[in-house]
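Final report, closing paragraph on structural work. Over the funding period we assembled a curated collection of sequence-structure pairs, and we close with a single example.
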Amino acid sequence: MYIAPAISGHEPKYQKLGVDVLFYALLFIVVGSTAFGWLGSLQHLGNNFSFWIGNQGLEFTSMGRIWQILLFIGLLFWVTLLGRGLMPALKKPSESRGLIAMVFLAALCIGGFYATSLTWGPHTHYSMIEYWRWWLVHLWVEGFFEVFATAVIALLFTRLGLIRASTANSAIVLETIVFLFGGILGTLHHLYFTGTPTFVIAIGAMFSALEVVPLAMIGVEAYKNYQRSKAAAWVQAYKWSILCFIAVGFWNVVGAGLLGFSINTPIALYYMQGLNMTAAHGHAALFGVYGMLGIGLLLFCLRGLSDRAAWSDKLLAPMFWSLNIGLAMMVFISLVPAGIYQAWASVTEGMWFARSPAIVHSHLMETFVWMRVPGDVVFAVGTVFLALFALRLLIKGNRPRLVVSQKFGTQKA
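Its predicted structure, as stored:
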C-alpha cells in the first residue's frame, strides 16, 4: 500500500479510507479467529461451532469457515487497492513495467488462490480435504508467495539502482517459471497422506526438490546485490532493509531449499515426514523467508516516513543479527539434531517408535528441547530491539512531510 503510490506517483481517491478499512478488518479477523479458535479447541460447543466459527484443526487452515470467508474477501479487497495504486505505473511504458505487472499478478494469485481452502465442508472425506489443503499450503504459501516476494525484492532493488531492470525482468520470469512449474508438480509429494500411488509421490518429490535451484539463484543474486550496495554510499540509508532482503535469499536456500530437500524425497517421506526435521524446515523457511521479508518491507516503508534524526542503526544492527543467529541456533542446535535422532529411530524400528513416548520423552530428546532455549533467548532479544527501534521512531520522529524521490530517497518538503 505504501510502495504502490511511490512507484506510480499517484494515490487514487478514497485510497486512504480503503487502507484504513483493510487494516481494521485485519485486526478484527486476527483477534476474532484467535479467540474463537481457542474456544473451538476446547470442544465444548460441538463440531458445527468448531467448523464454522472455532477451530477446524487443520494446519494453515485452522480458523473457522466464517473467518476464512472474511479473510478471502479481505485478500480480494487488498488486491483491488493494490491494483488501483499501481494502475498508472502499469499503463505508463517503462523498464520496470514488467516487474510491476509481476508484483500485481502474484498478488492477484495470492488473493484468488486462497479460495482452495473453501472447497471442503464439515462432512467431506479427509483424503479430499488433504488434497485441497496441500494445494493451499504448497502452491499458495510456497508458490505464489515466493513469486510475490521475489518480484517485490527485484522491483525494490531496481528502484534503488542496485540491479538493471532488464536483468531483473529476465531473472523474475525465469524464476517464476521454475517456481510454478516445480511447485505445481511438487505439490504431489504432500499427497503421501491420501493414499496416492508411489510413482506420483516420486514425481512430486523430485520436482519439489528442484525448487532449490531458483532459491540458490536468488541467494547468489542477493550476495551480488550486497557487494553492489557497499559501493553506493547513498544506499546506506536502506542498509538494514537490504540486508533483510538478502537474509530472505539465504534462508530460502537453507530453510526452504536444503532442509526442505532433506524431507521431500520418497524415502525421506516414508521415514521422516512429520518428525522434527519437518519442524526444522518449517521454522527456517517460514520466519527466515516471510518473517525477514516482512521486517525488510517494514524498515523500507519506515525509512521514508520517519525523520532521519530519529533513525537508529545502533538498534537495528543487534535486531538483525539476533533474529538471524537466534533462528539458526534453534534450528541447528535443537530441531535438526532432534529430527536426526527421530529419523534414526524411524529407520531402525519404525515410525511408530519415532513418535512414541520412548523417543519423544526420552532423556536425549528432552535435552534437545532444552537446547532450544539459548536460541529462543537470542531470537527474543532481537524482537526487543525491533520494538525499541519502533518506539524511538514514535517518540523522537516529528513526522515531517516527505517527498519520495525517483529512487525512494526522501527529502523534507
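The CA atoms of residues 110 and 198 lie 30 Å apart. Residues 400-413 have pLDDT under 50 and may be disordered. We thank the funder for supporting this effort.
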